[in-house]
Amino acid sequence: MQFGIFTVGDVTTDPTNGTTPTEHERIKAMVRIALKAEEVGLDVFATGEHHNPPFVPSSPTTMLGHIAAQTSNLILSTSTTLITTNDPVKIAEDFAMLQHLADGRVDLMMGRGNTGPVYPWFGQDIRQGIPLAIENYALLRKLWREDVVDWSGKFRTPLQGFTSTPRPLDGVPPFVWHGSIRSPEIAEQAAYYGDGFFANHIFWPKEHFQQLISFYRQRFEHYGHGSADQAIVGLGGQAFIRPKSQDARNEFRPYFDNAPVYGHGPSLEEFTEQTPLTVGSPQEVIDKTLTFREHFGDYQRQLFLMDHAGLPLKTVLEQLDLLGSEVVPVLRKELDAMRPAHVPDAPTHASLKAAASVASVEASV
Questions:
Q1: pLDDT over 70 (residue 62)
Q2: CA-based Rg of the chain, rounded to a whole angstrom?
Q3: Higher pLDDT pick, 267 / 207
Q4: Are 61 and 91 in contact (CB under 8 A)?
Q5: In this structure, what are the phi and psi dihedrals at residue 110, rounded to the nearest 5 degrees?
């Protein structure tokens, strides 16, 4: 079981004192948060990709390459990479380069994004979002798996005798998760290829995501990648932790009430009842996170959103201390003990390389 954090990289005013970090301060804070994640024993750091204010992570591989140089164990990922508006050729090149720099500690999450104007900024039509996601990813897979590519499609110029460089490290492309909050077509795409499916269920009730994940599992089995319970599932989550529950609620409430995404809507109590958000003690976070397995089955990756809504860096680092020392060790032990032996771990570069080696031997026999 992998545990980690993801960031959307928002620049948000702290409602308790009216201060707003500069873009420089926010970018540096994201790096510090990633380093802290490794320090406290988390497995994954994932950054979003946005091209509009108030967000700063417009170049995820630049940031992740910088973090790779300062870490040793942390898996570097995205949340998400925009498969619809990025050129698949550039994605293939950028993430293969990052793979080499990070010695394989790289995977990525593909998604369409949730910002409508980004499509025309990059010469695309939002009404073609699903077809773009399907065609662009098919090309990306081909670029990573074939040394010389001839290709033509609807959304970009053809390729003739093209080789993407550098080639994936050890001949093994980064593992891909497909992220979605509402589209069964994306769950179908993940299942078709035997890739991972990431449900970022931080806003909506569990019933919505139960349908998406169940559909993905059924289709994963349909395409012959294994039984439904062996499908590779990742989940989002949110938490604010203090040793005492009431202290957590008192401290987080002004941030929740004024958050750009869900502020001025449901009360904190209503939102925590209806969504995965947990505001309370380490034990409360543990108890609620353990219910995710009851709702969605055994899964492989749990990422928490910890640094949004204007929370100061000092507070976020304190959150990571509590997450790493008091929450994740218990979750890891409990969830690993409950997972059946036939349900796989999340793929890593090492496991994918080993599987490719076995397949090569079998093919030569």
A1: yes
A2: 20
A3: 267
A4: no
A5: -90, 140
* pLDDT at 114 exceeding the cut of 70: no
- For 78-124, give the secondary structure using H, E and C: ECCEECCCCCHHHHHHHHHHHHHHCCCCEEEEEECCCCCCHHHHCCC
Burial of 110 per CB tally in 10 Å (0-12, 13-18, 19+): buried
**Smallest Cα–Cα separation from 111: which of 234, 289, 274?**
234
Q: Look at 262 and 248; give whichever has higher pLDDT.
A: 248
Q: Is the pLDDT of residue 310 over 90?
A: yes
Is the alpha carbon torsion for 309, 277, 285, 42 positive or negative? negative
Cis geometry, peptide bond prior to residue 80 (ω within 30 degrees of 0): yes
DSSP 173: P
DSSP notation for 321-357: HHIIIIIHHHHHHHHHHHS-TTSPPPP-HHHHHHHHH
* pLDDT value, residue 357: 87
Q: What is the mean pLDDT of residues 241-267?
A: 93
Q: For residue 212, count other CB atoms closer than 10 A to its CB.
A: 20
The model's pTM: 0.95
Amino acid at 346: A
Residue among 42, 43, 44, 55 at smallest CA distance from 82? 55
Q: Considering the chain, what is the average pLDDT of its residues?
A: 94
What contacts 123, CB < 8 A, 6 or more positions away? Answer: none
For residue 178, the cross-strand partners are 110, 197
